[in-house]
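Quick question, first post here. What does this chain look like in 3D?
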Amino acid sequence: MADFSFDIVSEIDRQELTNALDQVRKEITTRYDFKDVPVEIVNEKEQMVITTADDYKFKAVMEIIKSKFIRRGLSLGVLGEEKSEPASGGKMRITIKFVEGVDSEKAKQINKFIREKLPKVKTVIQGETIRVSSKSKDELQTVMDLLKNNQEIAIPLQFINYR
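> Answer (accepted):
Ran it through. Tokens below.
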């Protein structure tokens, strides 16, 4: 009997991210509360840099970003820690790192969680992915459901290469 498997990864859909941030920029230009307020959102590879007038405007921008992320199917878990610093002209610059990839600590936590719940399922950590295999497709579906409903895992997970 053949083994069935899938990979657990944590990736960001870059096109959806770009589209969401474009929608945010468009909404900011049309909103009255942002009239004559300079807001700049720069999407870099591993982070996003927001430059705005003050903390109040930053919170408003973040609410718009979160709503657009949800609308476009992006998990809010991709937004990591925020680092704030003063910028020129009395503005503030906030750098938000993107959470991508399953680091070794999270991989070990996921591995341990799966083995506790379903001892017959085999898991192998392969860099930033975790390969899960079993003789039963039903067990693999159970693993997916358990991971989707687990609140302790704070990163967004995707399941790929289902065979």
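The chain has two domains: 4-11+101-160, 14-98.
The mean pLDDT is 88.
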